[in-house]
Design a protein that fits this description.
The chain has four helices and 20 strands. With 291 residues, it is mainly β. The protein has a seven-stranded mixed beta barrel. The protein has a six-stranded antiparallel β-sheet with strand order 7-6-9-4-1-11, with no helix packed on it. Strands 2-3-10-5-8 form a five-stranded antiparallel β-sheet. GO terms for molecular function: ATP binding; hydrolase activity; transferase activity.
């Protein structure tokens, strides 16, 4: 079987597909690629199904080699990528000969690259998905130097380079995200609700695949909410904006816990969650009312 051998795994590289929905009742979140659009694009470029498993490479500093000729595509973050020492384009299908080393440098814009390979990564699925869930430990282990990953059978038709690559680098400036108030907005003061939409938040370096922590003006609970005590744990979804006692909100991402006791002041629109995959520490985030 054709395989990909990791020579340098970088800070955090994992196998990801589009996740394992339907298991929240047993404590397993959907997981999957944080930037679903970038993974789907990489797969489309080389003829895979959009949900085929690829690699999510955080920050960069990754290299690998293939034991057969393969088609690959790199999407998501923006930086220098080389094959056999020669530069290759981001967001383009690329044909690599067997034994060619692929190197993905440190991201200059965005934070997470996605590497798709013809046929997809064929590690054994767990609960119907090949995704690595860092919180529950479900799925394949985080990649390390020397790992060999099996590849599936590629699309039989030869791929051709696209004439135009209309996808540019991720934003480095402020990112504006639609937000829907509730379900626990009544736990907070009206001033805090206004603050949520008027403050420019910054992504905390403590963010990860579980949640995007935001630094800014702490949100205050109302006097009535303070008298209620703690909120019983309830179901959580990706995009929930939880507010812990510090008042600094966290946007739950793909590897989020399935329950939580911190009040959810609002929820990020699902279609906008991919933006958080490419935010860099310290990058600014603004919220607008969803429509």
């Amino acid at each position: 079987m054709t395989s990909l051998r990791v020579t340098t795994a970088g800070p955090l590289s994992t196998v990801q597909d589009l996740g394992r929905p339907g298991f929240a009742a047993v404590g397993v979140s959907r997981s999957g690629a944080l930037d679903r659009g970038a993974l789907a694009l990489a797969n489309r470029l080389i003829g895979n199904a959009e949900g085929a498993a690829g690699l999510e490479i955080t920050v960069g500093g990754f290299s690998c080699v293939f034991d057969a000729d393969v088609w690959i595509a790199v999407t998501g973050a923006w930086g220098r990528a080389t094959a056999g020492g020669q530069p290759i384009d981001i967001n383009q299908p690329v044909r690599l000969a067997a034994g060619t080393s692929l190197e993905i440098g440190m991201a200059e814009a965005g934070l997470r690259y996605y590497l798709a390979v013809g046929g997809g990564i064929e590690v054994p699925p767990v609960l119907g998905s090949r995704s690595t869930d860092l919180l529950s430990g479900t799925g394949p282990a985080v990649l390390k130097d020397g790992d060999a990953l099996p590849l599936g059978h590629p699309h039989p038709e030869a791929m051709r380079p696209v004439d135009i690559s209309p996808w540019g680098p991720p934003d480095l400036g402020p990112v504006t995200v639609p937000l829907y108030v509730g379900p626990r907005a009544d736990w907070f003061t009206s001033a805090s609700l206004e603050t949520l939409f008027t403050t420019t938040w910054k992504l905390s370096p403590a963010s990860n695949r579980v949640g995007a922590r935001l630094d800014g003006i702490p949100l205050q609970r109302s006097a009535e909410a303070l008298g209620r005590g703690e909120l019983p744990s309830e179901g959580m979804v990706a995009g929930a904006l939880q507010v812990p006692p510090s008042g600094l909100p966290t946007v739950l991402l793909a590897d989020h816990p399935t329950t939580g006791g911190y009040p959810v002041i609002a929820v990020v629109a699902s279609a906008a969650l991919d933006r958080f995959a490419q935010l860099r520490p310290g990058q600014e985030v603004r919220f607008r009312h969803g429509r």
